[in-house]
Amino acid sequence: MSSNVIINPGINRDFSNEFPFAFMMGSLSDFYLLCDLIKIGKKNLPYYMMSRYLASKDSQKPIFITGPMIGSPYAVMILENLIASGIRKIVFLGWCGAISPNLHIGDIVIAKGAFIDEGTSLHYSGRTGEKVSGSKNITDLAVRAAKDLGCVFSEGDIWTTDGFYRETHDRVVNFQKKGALAVEMELSALFSVGKFRNVEVCGILVVSDELSTFKWNPGFGSKRFKKGRRDACTIMGELWSNHL
Predict the structure, then answer these.
(1) CA 157 to chain CA centroid, nearest Å
(2) Which of 132, 134, 120 is nearest to 91 (CA)?
(3) CA-based, 20 to 30 A from 112: which of 43, 123, 186, 189?
(4) Residue 11 lies inside a defined structural domain of this protein
């Protein structure tokens, strides 16, 4: 850690150096869904900051899951502490709003990179508007896992913002022109930290709503969205079982 930093991330003794990778879940419902799919009990989960976590060595291989988390600052706070505890591979599962007309509610996106439009990355040498890439190695493993399952998905870049209610017409157009497929609130910061700390970070997203027509079309309660979330968690289970 830098000697110039006053506060350094802490090491959690409960899982320090015992888990080589972690799944970070944006929503608690997806956390529980993943536990159900891989048949790991989810009762009495301890708290980790404002999130819960599961650290299990009782199954076919070790697994660490934590969530929920929303927004770049909090997601990075979790990530920094995981890294300090010895975790070197991280897969994040979150939700996103489609800004590409080719994406629809329930679709799965495996992110190659993310455009910085949030403030946390600026503390890790990132610059506003810059694209930061996820780890090619672990992203390729996620793609292979999805293909092995026969899942339909898209690959591409994401727009990460802090402004939950500031996805304006002009900003959507700007990031459409850059080639971004969707907007969310964590990935560019997670990728920036991964680059800074030299760890592997991958992002998988499920489209929860659509903005590409400049009218908001929410799909949070739809069958397509629920199926997409289940498929994404199945990809993570496959990634854990056969690729990580």
Answers:
(1) 13
(2) 134
(3) 123
(4) no
